[in-house]
Write a structure and sequence with these properties.
The protein has 207 residues and is mainly α. It has 2 domains: 107 residues, Rna Polymerase Sigma Factor, Chain: A, CATH 1.10.1740.10; 74 residues, Arc Repressor Mutant, subunit A (Orthogonal Bundle). The protein is built from 10 helices and no strands. It is elongated.
Length: 207
């Protein structure tokens, strides 16, 4: 089992942006037993995989156990690892299958099938196109940074802090109508900036 460590002088910083390091290179390093490459992959995907597992199993502890097992198997089977899709899709599919195995093990298949009637079968999820929560967060943060300061401030106070328009107006020392305009402008700009993610984000914060 690899030993996790945080060495600021290491060749591959665990805090480095994942987009700056080629996934194929990391997989190549992983197959050669590079523990730091594994740590980067672990930290990149762990939280997202737990959240994904939670859409199938409503048991966080169980999801965490499954994700840890999947990721540790990635390490233990590294030398014979064959990934035909992206690593993200491979890991999502592995977690998905393990969650379904857990459901079968607990003999609650009927309850689960009833729950998923309106959602489609879990096997139909396109793991290649599945949007990770961290990807949404990253895109939203970048889009918010592009907004005019006062529009961003009003939007964040309303959507993230739960303030109503009157409370925001008092804080910004403007009329309620001005707050409405600023938030409306923020939503319009975010709709443009986040075209690929808009439907998902709309359900979360823009509605």
């Amino acid at each position: 089992m690899p030993i996790f460590r945080n060495n600021n002088d290491s060749q591959y910083s665990c805090n480095a942006s994942f987009t700056m390091i080629d996934e194929h290179f990391l997989l190549s390093e992983l197959k050669q037993g590079n523990q730091e490459a594994f740590t980067i992959l672990f930290q990149k995907y762990y939280k997202d995989l737990v959240l994904f597992g939670g859409t199938i199993l409503h048991d966080r502890v169980c999801c965490e156990d499954i994700v840890q097992t999947v990721l540790l198997r990635l390490w233990s089977d590294r030398e014979k690892l064959e990934i035909e899709t992206s690593l993200k899709s491979f890991l999502l599919k592995s977690v998905q299958n393990s969650c379904l195995d857990e459901i079968r093990h607990n003999q609650v298949v009927n309850e689960y099938e009833s729950y998923t009637l309106g959602l489609g079968q879990i096997g139909e999820i396109d793991t290649e196109k599945y949007i990770l929560y961290s990807d949404l967060q990253e895109q939203l943060t970048e889009a918010l940074d592009k907004l005019p300061e006062l529009c961003r401030e009003a939007f964040q106070m309303n959507r993230f802090e739960g303030l109503n328009y009157k409370e925001i107006a008092l804080k910004q020392q403007v009329s309620v109508r001005t707050v409405e305009v600023r938030i409306g402008k923020a939503i319009g700009l975010l709709r443009n900036y986040l075209k690929e993610f808009f439907l998902v984000l709309a359900a979360l914060i823009l509605s």
